[in-house]
Structure prediction request, 113 residues.
Amino acid sequence: MSHDPYAEKLATFKENEKPEVVLLLADDPEMIKLIIAWTSIAASPARELSPLEGATESEVWDWLWQNTTYSRRELSAKSSIPVHQLDRKLRPLIGNEVIYPDGTVNSFVQRHL
Prediction:
């Protein structure tokens, strides 16, 4: 079995999920659409990962996202959120670990939906 730093780092976040992130979805149908769309697009690690510079939780989380590829156009189409508005909605979902860079979502959020 080969060493996969991307999968290993991501697994750590999934093991330490926070249930309170479900509260972010309250009264925000656009965020819910975006989360549902996120699970139906192809998100994957970059072919060549950049070096991981730091070791803090936020540095590792940022590194995972910097090394993730996905189609913003497809995400926009599936969520009906214009491409130019995606960042405004994605930032809180990423920052609060609601969506994961592998195309999955926080398990508490998944159960809520």
Notes: The mean pLDDT is 94. The first strand starts at residue 44 and ends at 45. The helical segments are 5-15, 29-38, 57-66, 72-79, 83-95, 107-112. The two ends are 35 Å apart (CA to CA).
